[in-house]
Amino acid sequence: MVQRIINAHPDAWIWGEIGGFELAERHWAESWNSLERFRDSFADRDRELYRRLAEGENLATEWTGGLVPPRETALEAYRTFFRTLLERKRIWGWKAISCFHLDLMRMLFPEAKIIVTVRPPLDQYRSYRTGISSDEDPETDIEKLKRHYRTCLSKTKSEDLVLDLGAFDPEAWVEAFYSHIVEPIPDEAITAAKSKVSGPVPPPLDNVEPEIERRIRRELEPLYRRLSRI
Q: pTM of the full predicted structure?
């Protein structure tokens, strides 16, 4: 829904969950972390080599095969890659399904505007259990949701827009979104917010086992309440 509302802007394109569950973000995180670990392993050597290069020394006879680009140079390369990839649109971004890589997004895209939507945990479980992980046991799903809430609590900042799906209001949400990204509201955004769309995900569970519901209320509800107040 958030993705559709912002994509209603004629100059916006928000990518969705590319390749499955967080696949794109995971790849970016892994590639960046690998580069960071490699840089850390050779930090002293690299500093010395870059110093000598800056002074005009010819290092053709030195072992420079593993020389890692400086951190800011690598960051700019990542940012340039995505800007070039999406240059046909002035406003662009990603729709993720968790907060796990918010730190990475902030680092790669320091101008990004973050929107976090939260959902009552029992509703989330009823949807999540049916649509994504019906082959897993309820214990696993509850633990996943617990990690999700804790991660969002630890990585969401005061400047982010946090909205509670349990109190969804189409016009208020559209106004909040476009105010957050500092853009005029297109008429199509209201239509998108008020429209219901069908998709491949099965309908939510009608009922949840009483013991599972009690555990959700005991373990997840407090985390959700804290997050929805941010």
A: 0.79
